[in-house]
């Protein structure tokens, strides 16, 4: 893999840390600003919704720019946004700074995926996407625990200053190693991009992504109470178990990329089925300490095995003018799935069968994603047959 690809990985690492480190600092932030834990938790929701809104806006606004320039501007926004978080004088200012930072997220991963696939041969495109997303998985293993420790010992602002430094370093690495890449020749017509995005195959691909990650975050959002209240682990055991989850993320991410390099569609279907099976069996595994640890690792692997295949699948369905926009929208789809999944898990706990039932309810959602993917494939085949029939019936001129 070219070194430029690892420069993109560095940017992905920084973005991954800033997205998730706030989870371990909610108590500190809430105490500092005098707000409830629920209000502090909205800093996570605000970031996710900022990604959903910012991805299409930033991608459209920068469509005519050279790809490297886009990446550098996004890392600059990311760095400035984290510095603003560290300096925020109030809860509202911190929320605004988080939303500003989130605007870089979707477009960085969207445009970065397009750049990554252009740096390698066609048969290694999914692996290239997976390598870039490895920065996100490593952020969960190393960056988030360290950022949480830093915030708990030196104040939550220290965590955001550390991420600011990471952003500045990632900016320099991208500036040094990523080659100059011109904007696509057909870029700039946002109407054409939206028409490409509105095609049925692209929309069904985006829906598949959302459904897959509703299942992931339906469980992951509540992994701590599941491990303590259902399995019976002490609270101090949760962090080490989450390191195992992070290891599963890395393995699943790289494995999903390699399999998708061979055959994209079977990997999309297989990874979603595997995710559904893991979530379903986790319902029973949580009643055993050792099985719970094994299935936390499997959940990480199954979850991120879907990322590169889903990203590449949507990009292929929108190849051409709308590729960058569709790629960014798919990142927004992941985050929309995160938000819906957290809501679904909470609904099951408060108004449904309870905490122990969250995994099997979550398992049904990626299974619905498999159904949507199969429907998309069936409709694509039908359209292909109709196109062939139309061509055969059209008289030659």
TrEMBL record:
* Presence of keyword Transcription: no
Q: Which InterPro entries match?
A: MFS, MFS_dom, MFS_Efflux_Transporters, MFS_trans_sf, Tet-R_TetA/multi-R_MdtG-like
| Coiled-coil residue windows | none
Main subcellular location: membrane
- Sorted UniProt keywords: Cell membrane, Membrane, Transmembrane, Transmembrane helix
One Gene Ontology MF term: transmembrane transporter activity
| A Gene Ontology term for the protein's cellular component | plasma membrane
Write down the superkingdom of origin.
Bacteria
- CDD domains reported in the protein's UniProt record: MFS_NepI_like
Q: Where are the transmembrane segments?
A: 5-27, 33-58, 70-91, 103-121, 128-148, 160-182, 202-224, 236-256, 268-286, 292-313, 325-349, 355-377
**Membrane topology for this entry?**
Multi-pass membrane protein
Keyword Transmembrane helix listed? The answer is: yes
Subcellular location per the Swiss-Prot or TrEMBL entry:
Cell membrane
> Which Pfam families is this protein grouped with?
MFS_1
Give the protein name, as stated in the record: Arabinose transporter permease
* Originating organism: Pandoraea horticolens
Could you read off the lineage of the organism from its UniProt record? Bacteria, Pseudomonadati, Pseudomonadota, Betaproteobacteria, Burkholderiales
